[in-house]
Amino acid sequence: MAKLNFGGVTENIVTREEFPLEKAREVLKDETIAILGYGIQGPGQSCNLRDNGFNVIVGQREGKTYDKAVADGWKPGETLFSIEEAVKRGTIICMLLSDAGQMQVWPQIKNLIKAPKTLYFSHGFAINWNDRTGVVPPKDIDVIMVAPKGSGTSLRTMFMEGRGINSSYAVYQDATGKAVEKTLALGVGVGSGYLFETTFKREAVSDLTGERGSLMGAIQGLLSAQYETLREHGHTPSEAFNETVEELTQSLMPLFAAKGMDWMYANCSTTAQRGALDWMGPFHDAIKPVMEKLYHSVETGNEAQISIDSNSKPDYREKLNKELEAMHNSEMWRTAETVRKLRPENN
After folding, report:
1. 3-class SS at 173?
2. Which of 15, 26, 158, 197 is 20 to 30 A (C-alpha) from 327?
């Protein structure tokens, strides 16, 4: 474990060179890793662990998601089971169901999760707000977390490319004295690029803030506001989309992802640099109060309760699909479909 300095703050960082795959296999050689849920994180983590040589089984209800697991090579009765059966067979129980799914299934499986089993999460939600979720693990088991900082799809894609998504890790309960070692082994096993230390609370709060902020909510709000402004002032859909989304994702994001925002600025025109430097302040000042309001809403548990209330309704999936469909059918994202077809790699 290395201690690295980030802007004057020292953090614990673990790389795959420090904790190689061979060590991870040795740590978990006697474990049966039971992945519960095959939705967002389940496929990527389970398939990566399997391909890395670990003993993995999947627990999933029958239906479309179950059929996807079968298509991915999980065999009913051998490596694919009901959720309850997977919990019984597993020694490390990985709660990769949705937050709502974890709340729903917990009463059915909590009496099956006993020492010496380990309970694993990839999000701090259920534990950090367990006064609201009801997910309270027994005190005599290890409770750990590896949280990839990206979607399960990206985790799998980058693994197949020989790369890895960075992940945070945390230990909530260390009943055996071996929780940290198991956590790091699982982090390496699922294909993390490197691992940085956190807590269940910090992960839950930062994750909900990021999703509602720059990663999803704020970025969609910013893009749609700029696109609408350009369209309302007579610019065509193609021009508005290219200036709002296409240039950002295809040209500029790879630059600042590689070497930082200053590098991206340096590789743009002097006119662009001057304007960006002048306007980043007003944008920051306008957005910062919204971010503070968002953070307070997350930290106090208000956002968690909104999610719990919404996702517990029987028609939540139907309403969600309608909202996503409305976004898909907006002019900006319909324009995106045409623009993507015009990219050189698609012609």
Report:
1. strand
2. 158
